[in-house]
Amino acid sequence: MAAGTEFSATGYISHHLTHLKGTFFSGGVHLDTIVTSLFLGVVGLWLLYAVARRATAGVPGKLQAAVELLVDFVEDQVKSVFPGDRSMVGPLALTVFVWVVLMNAMDILPVDILAIGMTPISHEWRFVPTADVNTTFALALSVFGLMIFYNIKVKGLGGWLHELFCTPFGSNPILWPFNLAFQFIEYVSKPLSHSLRLYGNMYAGELIFLLLWVWAASGVVGAFFGALLGLGWAIFHILIVILQAFIFMMLAAAYIAMAHEHH
User: How far apart are CA 39 and CA 103, in angstroms?
Assistant: First the structure.
């Protein structure tokens, strides 16, 4: 909050749930989300690239061993839902998992960390990209686009259109509207559930941290229990950070795998 302003729990929470906005081609954009997402994406790619470049055939170092375990873990998980050629799906799943983990992990940082000596961006800056529905929708729509692409690539445009109009109730022309309506609901529900699940969990986690921070500012007793519960929630939130990234990755792999199935 600004100096000299009386503390208000509602104002404090609203302050931290407000994005730093800018204008791009006459449209509004969340600059904090874009900058943080791109920065973490570069960090994730650089880290994986650096480890791969320095990898040795002998006894690996701790960082190389950790990355190798991560790659094997993702490969095994993708294999369970996508038994075919994983030359594209495997790297995609790894990239999604690492990027979403890094974005989710920003929620563990203290909410006022940017206010320390960083006046230009200390107001209206949210540094948890996945707590912004625009981020999760963009990721989910990217996966949705790949799903459509592989539907057409694997089945052909005619085969995909035939599936839209003739599945699941049959190829009788009378049933085409019902098949198309069923397929429309199925296709629309995928990016919606894919994005809102991640967004809802991370937004709720961010809000709980803010509520605990407000409690900690209420006095000595509040500071003690707020700090204690905040530490407990931060430790538990580590599990949520990883679990939500894992679920998002698995759904991405499963949706692309479904595009390779013939009906």
Answer: 10
CA–CA gap between residue 23 and residue 12 (Å, rounded): 25
Considering the chain, what percentage of its residues have pLDDT values greater than 70?
A: 86
Active site residues: 193, 197, 201
Kindly state the average pLDDT of the residues 64-79: 90
Estimate the share of the chain in helix, then strand, then coil, as percent rounded to the nearest 5.
75, 5, 20
The one-character DSSP state at 174 is G
pLDDT at 113: 59
Contact 107, 9 (CB under 8 A): no
Residue 67, helix vs strand vs coil: helix
Reading the block at residue 232, the tokens are 């407990």
Alpha-carbon span 227 to 214, nearest angstrom: 11
pLDDT value at 139 more than 80 = yes
Q: Mean pLDDT lowest for which of 77-91, 119-133, 169-183?
A: 119-133
The whole-number pLDDT of residue 119 equals 43
Domains of the chain, residue spans: 21-259
Burial of 219 from C-beta contacts in 10 A (0-12 / 13-18 / 19+): exposed
Residue 216 has pLDDT above 70, yes or no: no
Separation of alpha carbons 150 and 81, rounded Å: 16
Kindly provide the b/e burial profile for residues 14-26, where b requires at least 16 CB atoms within 10 angstroms of the residue's own CB: ebbeebbeeeeee
DSSP for 130-149?
A: GGSHHHHHHHHHHHHHHHHH
Which is higher by pLDDT, 114 or 138?
A: 138
Span between the terminal Cα atoms of the chain, in Å: 57
Q: Reduce the DSSP state of residue 22 to 3 states and report it.
A: strand
Q: Which residue has the higher pLDDT, 227 or 187?
A: 187
